[in-house]
């Protein structure tokens, strides 16, 4: 699909009630190459297929179009089922990134309509999204988030001349573009200096996604922020909406010197202050990285959205 297809989808897809980062139109665009995402428009829904890892491979639950305010979900699921099973030579069909509710809905549909099929489900904790109340990330209430307040205070005490710039498509500028990529490049240089050469392509792929996001900020309504110390950019964040209720954080990077004094807590908190129109903030998955898991848990998520993969098998 090209950029014109994404322009069409932006106005046609109904994301209401969806929380998962895989539903974000921004993510579908940014990750289409890395995750080998195939998108196919049908009459009432968008068909998505991923080919990334053992647990993120196969067809996802359909996203409905806005054209029908109250779609007949059984009719959509029937069309979806007939399409993914059509001309299949394999004995089973892979499914992925189903939420608990979607899994139950599809199980019920299969049982009621195609009893000669069954689904074997599994889950990978590394794929689950961490979702927070916007008000919690902004206000950091109570003892449970006191450490985050301490990190922010430490940063402000350490760096006297620091500032934050919020941006979206209305105030995006060449300076923001240049400063944002400067942090991305410096962060990648730090990472590649302490990791193996085999991981370099991962960082370069992420850098490509960051630049692509900045080049299409208006189409996908990306918003973000930059943190400066002595007028030098040291941290960045970038996000786009999943629905009117849920904002998805795509990137958050901080250079090591500032990170050691609470830079991540500061860039997170400063950006969230500008996102009060959203109820929830999705900070995506932990990728099975222990340090990342601890960091995401330390913010006390309101929801951990488990994702399920499965095999659709004909008896």
What this model shows, in words?
By secondary structure, this protein is of the alpha+beta class. 40% of the residues lie in helices and 25% in strands. It has twelve helices and 14 strands. The chain has a seven-stranded mixed sheet with strand order 8-9-10-11-12-7-13. Strands 1, 2, 3 and 4 form a four-stranded antiparallel sheet that branches. Helix 7 runs antiparallel to helix 8 (200-215). The two termini are 35 Å apart. The relative contact order is 0.19. The mean pLDDT is 94.
**Biggest beta sheet attributes:** 7 strands, mixed
Helix percent reads: 40-55%
Number of helices: 12
Structural class by sheet pairing and helices: alpha+beta
What separation lies between the terminal Cα atoms?
35 Å
Order of helices and strands: HHEEEEHEHEEHHEHHHEEEHHEHEE
Order of strands across the biggest sheet? 8-9-10-11-12-7-13
Low-confidence stretches: none
- What Rg is obtained from the alpha carbons, in whole angstroms? 21 Å
Could you tell me the number of beta strands? 14
Shape estimate: elongated
Sheet-strand content, in percent, reads: 25-35%
The whole-number mean of residue pLDDT values reads: 94
């Amino acid at each position: 699909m090209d950029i014109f297809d994404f322009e069409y989808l932006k106005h046609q897809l109904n994301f209401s009630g969806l929380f998962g980062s895989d539903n974000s139109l921004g993510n579908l665009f940014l990750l289409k190459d890395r995750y080998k995402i195939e998108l196919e428009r049908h009459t009432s829904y968008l068909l998505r297929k991923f080919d990334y890892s053992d647990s993120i491979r196969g067809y996802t639950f359909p996203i409905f179009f806005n054209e029908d305010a109250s779609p007949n979900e059984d009719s959509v699921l029937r069309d979806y089922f007939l399409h993914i099973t059509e001309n299949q030579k394999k004995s089973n069909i892979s499914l992925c990134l189903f939420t608990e509710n979607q899994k139950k809905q599809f199980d019920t549909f299969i049982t009621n309509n195609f009893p000669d099929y069954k689904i074997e489900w599994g889950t990978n904790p590394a794929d689950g999204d961490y979702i927070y109340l916007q008000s919690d990330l902004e206000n950091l209430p109570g003892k449970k988030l006191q450490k985050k307040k301490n990190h922010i205070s430490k940063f402000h005490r350490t760096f006297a001349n620091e500032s934050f710039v919020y941006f979206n498509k209305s105030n995006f500028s060449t300076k923001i573009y240049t400063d944002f990529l400067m942090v991305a490049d410096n962060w990648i240089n730090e990472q590649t200096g302490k990791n193996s050469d085999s991981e370099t392509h991962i960082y370069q792929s992420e850098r490509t996604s960051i630049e692509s996001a900045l080049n299409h900020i208006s189409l996908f309504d990306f918003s973000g922020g930059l943190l400066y110390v002595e007028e030098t950019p040291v941290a960045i964040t970038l996000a786009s909406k999943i629905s009117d209720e849920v904002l998805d954080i795509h990137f958050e990077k901080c250079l090591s010197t500032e990170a050691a004094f609470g830079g991540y807590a500061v860039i997170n908190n400063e950006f969230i202050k500008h996102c009060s129109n959203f109820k929830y903030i999705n900070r995506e998955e932990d990728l099975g990285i222990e340090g990342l898991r601890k960091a995401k848990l330390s913010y006390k998520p309101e929801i951990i959205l488990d994702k399920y993969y499965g095999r659709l098998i004909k008896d």
